[in-house]
Write a structure and sequence with these properties.
Elements lengths: L1 H12 L16 E6 L3 H4 L4 E6 L5 E6 L2 E4 L9 E4 L9 H16 L11 H11 L10 H11 L1 E2 L2 H27 L1
Antiparallel strand pairs: 1-2, 1-5, 2-3, 3-4, 5-6
Helix pairs in contact: 3-4, 4-5
């Protein structure tokens, strides 16, 4: 047992292998995603995104002049994308947390704009501040795409919550179109 504890401590020390805790919504070094009602039903790759601290606390730009902590604007995360703290320029965990904090402070003074300055912009700023993956070119578009590609669903029900409305709406539209074309 002691050997297992030592391995866990070494893994935690060497690069952000902290465990995700789905029950308590703790996602260390992760970007988290949840669907936005109606918008995500139509375009399931678009949703609400947040970034987590090294301890897993979720920070998300939830509206004008407001960055929430551990209370995402549209509910608990349905997907998460675990990032590697070793890809942060500087002192990994300290730099990560400072970047998340500084981005959150910046967005507490900004007005929310659905198309131009939103939750994706908040997360992009944090990644740019920490120079994640030696880059300062993070933006809404590449975050949206990469979260879609690399994101993992937190559970089967999260998968259903993410995709069922889209498939139901698509089914209704296809049925309607086929019904019109058959007459």
């Amino acid at each position: 047992m002691a050997e297992t504890d030592e391995i866990d401590i070494i893994m935690n020390f060497q690069g952000g292998f902290e465990k995700v805790d789905f029950k308590h919504s703790r996602y260390p070094y992760c970007i988290v995603w949840t669907p936005i009602p109606i918008l995500s039903w139509l375009l399931p790759f678009i949703g609400h995104i947040g970034i987590c601290t090294s301890s897993g606390v979720i920070r998300d730009f939830a509206g004008s002049y407001f960055v929430s902590e551990d209370n995402m604007a549209f509910g608990r995360p349905t997907k998460y994308w675990k990032l590697n703290v070793d890809q942060v320029c500087g002192n990994g965990p300290t730099t990560w947390d400072k970047a998340v904090h500084d981005a959150s402070d910046e967005y507490k003074s900004r007005q929310h704009n659905l198309c131009c300055d939103n939750c994706h912009s908040h997360v992009a700023l944090a990644l740019n501040l920490m120079r994640y993956d030696n880059s300062t070119s993070w933006n809404m578009v590449n975050l949206c795409l990469l979260a879609l590609i690399h994101g993992k669903h937190v559970s089967c029900m999260a998968f259903v919550k993410t995709w069922l409305p889209f498939f139901m709406l698509t089914g209704v539209i296809v049925t309607f179109i086929l019904t019109l074309n058959l007459h």
